[in-house]
Amino acid sequence: MGAARDSSTGLNVLWLQSGGCGGCSMSLLCADTTDFHGQWRDAGIHLLWHPSLSLESGSEVIEMLNRVLDGTLRVDALCVEGSLLRGPHGTGRFHVMAGTGVPMIQWVTRLAARARHVIAIGSCAAWGGITASGDNPTDACGLQYDDDRRGGLLGAAFRSGSGLPVINVAGCPTHPGWVNDTLMALAADGLTEADLDTFGRPRFYADQLVHHGCTRNEFYEFKASAEKPSDLGCMMEHMGCKGTQAHADCNTRLWNGEGSCTRGGYACISCTEPGFQEPGHPFHQTPKIAGIPIGLPTDMPKAWFVALASLSKSATPRRVKVNATADHIVVAPAARKTRLK
Questions:
Q1: Is 262 helix (H, G, I), strand (E, B) or coil?
Q2: What residue ranges do the domains of the chain occupy?
């Protein structure tokens, strides 16, 4: 996998890594399939080059990139992993592609102009992500966003050869299924602008909430909350969980076939959202005003939430209340006659 070939059919994919940790590539290799290479091949996806998965290096890669720029090698999907480092002072020289003397941001800009589709792999490439946090000394940004502001490296008006804006497969890391499904949809010519949400994320996962399918939903319904790590209860009220606000299908499209952050006992930090890396408070704490969480569920007015929470807590069954602050089931559901009504 990784021969630099120009297939007359299928989707030619070029994958570059910029300012990031490489976690999205590691996530991709955990795709829920027994034959990752075969899955791409059968979908008509041809990997031209990936810095970790391909054999070509050095002059071979530079020659391939130049073939893309002169139009002799077709790129259908330019995938960029990691944020784009514009510093110092807009020169991009904090990140120069080895052997070329040319900043990565220049390579990406030139290659994006040749690509049919441009895809941001992960939240760093989409919004700037972790790399852009703090004082952001490298002037890191996303391909078409700088946090939630349109612009980024390529500019707000950028459109790829297909007429689409940058496709933001956001996540930290992004789910391998989101990457595979996006590429497969593009290979089948089945992804349009209507299939992207207002932040350019594929709607097949971004129209969902992490809250959907969460195993702690019974505790959420009764506002029976966890008070410390390892508790079984809902982590929204005290433990910083943003699952009711985060756009992703993590609890219905499980990681490695069985896991998610909340199923592992960790609060959702909304890693698919712009600015998630700097919430203004510790990730494991829920900021409140007058005892009410600042971050309320999507589309729920505060008055409704306060009323619902008060009613729910007054109706919480003892079983749910006790189990919420335990690390195992203390009180099991009552067994009744089998003639359920």
A1: helix
A2: 11-206, 210-328
Q: Taking the alpha carbons of 28, 232, 208, 132 in that order, is the dihedral positive or negative?
A: negative
Q: Under CATH, to which class is 11-206 assigned?
A: alpha beta
pLDDT (tens digit per residue) in 41-97: 999 999 999 999 999 999 999 999 999 999 999 999 999 999 999 999 999 999 999
Backbone angles phi, psi at 68, to 5 degrees: -65, -45
Buried b / exposed e along 168-206 (16+ C-beta atoms within 10 A): bbbbbbbbbbbbbbbbbbbbeeebeeebbeebbbbebbb
40 φ, ψ to 5°? -65, -45
Write out the CATH class of domain 210-328: few secondary structures
pTM of the predicted protein model:
0.92
Query: Which element (helix H / strand E) includes 322?
Result: helix 318-324
Long-range CB pairs of 304-313 (<8 Å, 24+ gap) are 309/223, 312/221, 312/222, 312/223, 313/222, 313/223, 313/224
